[in-house]
Specification:
By secondary structure, the protein is mainly α. It is built from 16 helices and no strands. The longest helix is centred in the N-terminal third of the chain and has 31 residues, at 113-143. The structure holds protoporphyrin IX containing FE. Protoporphyrin IX containing FE binds next to helix 6, helix 7, helix 8 and helix 10.
Length: 407
């Protein structure tokens, strides 16, 4: 442990003691102390500063200026057609913003083209599972992440939650796109724009009475720690589930999948010293930052309703009890209870027994007669859901917000 880390630990330990004595600690607030070592990161070193006190300073300041000068509509207009990774930036952007974007669009020196291709191959082979896990699993999990749920609820996009939920799920899917980080792909443009959106949210949300009332003392949203929490609700969660389901995954596939998400973390503005270098490091960090903070919030409950509404609308043949049972199965009862998913005492054990058999059959591990018919109803419905909800090639239209959600 570095000196800085040790000192912070002592200071924070004292503060937590006082908090506990006053009986104020609530599960939503109870963050573990930051002890994760930067030597486990892709950078391999770092100051060890608690990422809850780190944001994205340079772009945060630039975007705040853009908002204050009333330039957001013009910037959004200019960026509307900037969608391909190899496209030059449009003329007319404020100079500072343009310079920052030119830097931000560069892939990190450690990006490895071969590993990125391995990730594409992996997603192509396992697309049904990853699609379901991003669209349903990560989507539902995000509603149990209090800071994310509240930020989304009180920001401009919160007024149309279905659209908002769909956009985040879509990003998970686009990461696995054939062209993701290649010149003709769109992930660089999407990540840089998302970074701009997050910077705008950091400027705007502190002006929202709803957000300020519920932020638990956080003064600026979307810290680097928050970014990592959400990151873990994507690849770390997805890989954990694939392992639980005993999906056969080669070392190359697993490394490729981690790599594309490491690159994505960097492109979304997460500092290299916080990005886990290995799955072991990712799991350790996730246990520290994600597991302790999942909780119920009214804002998260509203988001859960929106997500379940989308799934029902997709009408892939999933009945409500089946959606509930499968959702509980993939996020677990703890999160299921927190986000208010109905219990399905009869269907849930059936789904829990049937799904691993579908996986085993699809992966050629068992013969067909071993798979009960409900398993196929489920597989068919999920396949349709992935196809319709996470439809390939649907571009994400990201706009920099210039206001919070109106109430
Ligand atoms: C916007 C992805 C972390 C809160 C977005 C958008 C994407 C995205 C694709 C644009 C969609 C839109 O405009 O609606 C991600 C990813 C993250 C991450 C991949 C981490 C790996 C976070 C965190 C928070 C957050 C940690 C809050 C604690 C928001 C908010 C918006 C947004 C409030 C704007 C919604 C609006 O008002 O339009 N994010 N995000 N995000 N994100 Fe994130």
């Amino acid at each position: 442990m570095t000196d800085v880390n040790r000192r912070r630990l002592l200071i924070a330990g004292g503060a937590l003691g006082a908090f506990g004595a006053l009986g104020m600690a609530s599960p939503a607030r109870a963050r573990s102390l930051w002890t994760w070592s930067p030597s486990d990161s892709v950078a391999g070193r770092g100051a060890g500063v608690d990422p809850d006190w780190v944001w994205d300073d340079e772009v945060d300041a630039i975007v705040a200026e853009v908002i204050e000068r009333g330039q957001v509509p013009r910037v959004n207009d200019l960026l509307r057609n900037w969608v391909r990774n190899d496209q030059p930036l449009p003329d007319g952007l404020p100079a500072e913003l343009r310079d920052w974007m030119e830097e931000a669009r560069k892939l990190p020196s450690w990006a490895d083209t071969e590993k990125l291709q391995d990730a594409v191959d992996f997603t192509r082979r396992k697309g049904l599972y990853t699609g379901v896990l991003y669209g349903l699993g990560s989507g539902l999990l995000s509603t149990a992440i209090p800071r994310e749920a509240r930020a989304v609820y009180y920001s401009k996009g919160g007024a149309d939650m279905k659209d908002r939920v769909a956009k985040t799920a879509q990003l998970g899917y686009d990461v696995g796109d054939v062209y993701a980080y290649r010149p003709q792909g769109g992930m660089i443009a999407t990540s840089v724009r998302t970074r701009l959106v997050h910077a705008a949210v950091r400027h705007l949300l502190p002006q929202s009475p709803g957000w300020s009332r519920t932020s638990g003392g956080q003064t600026v949203p979307i810290s680097q720690a928050d970014m990592m929490v959400t990151w873990h609700s994507l690849p770390t969660y997805v890989m954990g589930k694939l392992r639980d389901w005993r999906v056969p995954i080669t070392e190359t596939e697993s490394e490729g999948f981690l790599h594309v998400w490491q690159v994505s973390a960097h492109m979304l503005g997460i500092r290299d010293e916080y990005i886990p270098a290995t799955w072991a490091a990712a799991n350790a960090q996730s246990r520290q930052v994600l597991d302790p903070i999942v909780d119920h919030t009214p804002e998260g409950a509203a988001l859960t309703d929106a997500l379940l509404g989308i799934i029902a609308e997709v009408d892939a043949g999933l009945t409500e009890p089946l959606i509930n049972a499968f959702s509980r199965y993939i996020v677990g009862d703890r999160v299921g209870d927190l986000i208010g998913l109905d219990r399905e005492p009869i269907l849930q054990p059936v789904v829990g027994a049937a799904w691993p058999l579908v996986v085993a059959f699809r992966e050629g591990l068992i013969p067909l007669p071993g798979v009960p018919s409900i398993a196929w109803t489920l597989e068919e419905a999920l396949r349709k859901f992935v196809l319709l909800f996470m439809s390939e090639g649907r571009p994400i239209h990201l706009e920099i917000p210039d206001a919070n959600r109106p109430f």
